[in-house]
Design a protein that fits this description.
The protein is an all-alpha fold and 74 residues long. Helices cover 49% and strands 0% of the residues. The chain contains three helices and no strands. Helix 1 packs parallel to helix 3. It is elongated and about 45 Å long.
């Protein structure tokens, strides 16, 4: 699942009121040993990772933690 899918899932869940107060979302990513970086960081998979990381920053900015308990998303 890429960043766009993640963003759409969160928006849909919020729109339907299906996220509990304090809910968090996160993405796991594989870093791996340095020998794999040309594939996992610099290649096509790396572009997907960059999109996912950018989406994480965008979700954090769009859904910040509030005093009302609205979760921040990471």
């Amino acid at each position: 699942m890429g960043g766009e899918d993640w963003r759409m899932w969160i928006a849909a869940l919020l729109e339907e009121g299906l996220l509990a107060p304090g809910a968090r979302t996160l993405a796991y990513t594989y870093i791996g040993p340095e020998v794999t970086w040309p594939i996992y960081r610099d290649g096509t998979i790396g572009r997907a990772k960059q999109d996912l990381e950018q989406t994480a920053r965008a979700l954090d900015a769009h859904y910040p933690q509030s005093s009302a308990g609205t979760p921040g998303y990471r």
